[in-house]
Design brief:
The protein contains 14 helices and twelve strands. Strands 2-8-7-6-5-3-4 form a seven-stranded mixed β-sheet, sandwiched between helices. Strands 9-12-11 form a three-stranded antiparallel β-sheet. The chain has a two-stranded parallel sheet with strand order 1-10. The protein is globular, with a radius of gyration of 21 Å.
């Protein structure tokens, strides 16, 4: 019998796939996996058709279509006052998961330590493990903020990278300017790299600014910053993202990227580039667009037995269900999907050492009618 030694023996199917499959099986309203149930902007779809028909269907440059990289550079400069070279410091990837994976594979070696914060997005640790590194888990506090004293205590001579994620999935918390002050002080005069997962950068609420690593020159010189077109333009299935990094880090990143996907879907890149140039209001208005959906969800849940603290960012909202059930969050989400008809994500699965949790994550990147229908059901619990 054929024997295979798994490189990821403890990894199964992601919770997002599990809960979406369950939602489909039980015909539940799917507020679990993070994707919109509405379409990308029509002008963007029209541009996709334009470039399909214009023959932009062969390999683009390995680093991404130049027009798109130029538009990314212009946006980064406009939003974060950060000048980046579109030729040497921007790489287009086939989704943010690829960019995160490639950054880790390009820089992490055997026994290097990588600090992450629990609850942690589930793609980070498998990538670290495949690179031969060790994942050091630090729990966020009860408000899902970083305790920098714990970070300083965890840094050793083996620490090679710190991964930050803001706005944070799954909690919806955001990094503040003082967090970047702490990160800058901690990494200064060291060889520690920063990998910043900023895929929800345009979903920061209450008129707050997104505190991108790109705002800080001292952090930028040691950082990979990952952003997502799929999240920004309501087209998660297009799987197009990008990584901004200084020249030396981008060079190493590209060595790995060319052997993972080599390049990314051509007409999509051209369509995104022209849409970015002609419709910048889309991403500029996105915080207000999603805050309205967050506010609708919170308002609709006001008379329920769930307890909510409004999300600071992302298109996710945590909810405490302790007044409804004493089930574990995994059991609760299964019951909620199978018996009640609304799918959510349990939070405990994002911890290295699961702490008993009675929080679940709902996605409000949905049509208003979908939000109202789901909340009507949840209010009755």
């Amino acid at each position: 019998m054929l024997k295979i030694a798994s490189k990821l023996p403890h990894v199964g199917t992601t919770i997002f796939t599990v809960m979406s499959q369950m939602a489909n099986e039980y015909q539940a309203i799917n507020l679990s996996q993070g994707y919109p149930d509405f379409n990308a902007p029509q002008p963007l779809l029209d541009l996709m058709q334009k470039y399909l028909n214009a023959g932009m269907n062969q390999y683009p440059p390995m680093t991404g279509v130049a027009y798109l990289r130029q538009q990314i550079a212009a946006k980064v400069d406009k939003l974060y006052s950060c000048t980046v070279d579109s030729e040497t410091e921007i790489t287009v990837t086939s989704g943010a998961t690829e960019a995160l994976f490639v950054a880790i594979q390009a820089t992490i070696e055997a026994d290097d330590e990588v600090i992450v914060f629990d609850p942690v997005y589930d793609s980070y640790e498998p990538a670290i493990q495949l690179a031969g590194g060790r994942t050091i888990h630090i729990p966020l506090d009860d408000k899902f903020n970083i305790n920098w004293n714990l970070v300083r205590a965890a840094v050793t001579s083996r620490t090679r990278m710190i991964i930050v994620n803001s706005p944070h999935n799954p909690s919806g918390s955001t990094l503040k300017a003082e967090d970047l002050d702490q990160l800058e002080a901690l990494t200064e005069d060291s060889d520690i790299l920063v990998l910043s997962d900023e895929v929800y950068e345009h979903m920061v609420f209450n008129s707050l600014a997104h505190e991108s690593i790109l705002r800080r020159p001292k952090l930028r010189e040691r950082a990979f910053v990952v952003s997502s077109f799929g999240k920004t333009y309501h087209a998660t299935g297009w799987k197009v993202a990008y990584c901004v990094a200084p020249v030396a880090l981008s060079a190493e990143f590209r060595k790995v990227h060319q052997y993972v996907t080599f390049t990314t879907h051509t007409p999509t890149q051209w369509a995104l580039a022209e849409y970015m140039e002609n419709y910048p209001e889309h991403y500029l208005e996105l915080p207000a667009f999603y805050q309205a959906k967050r506010d609708l969800f919170v308002e609709e849940m006001k008379d329920s037995r769930f307890k909510l603290t409004p999300s600071q960012g992302t298109y996710f909202q945590l909810a405490d269900y302790s007044q409804i059930s004493d089930k574990s969050d995994v059991d609760f989400t299964h019951w909620l999907t199978q018996e009640i008809g609304v799918a959510a994500i349990p939070i405990s699965v994002f911890y290295d050492k699961p702490t008993p949790s009675q929080h679940v994550r709902f996605c409000f990147a949905k049509d208003d009618a979908t939000i109202r229908a789901a909340c009507k059901i949840l209010r009755e619990l």
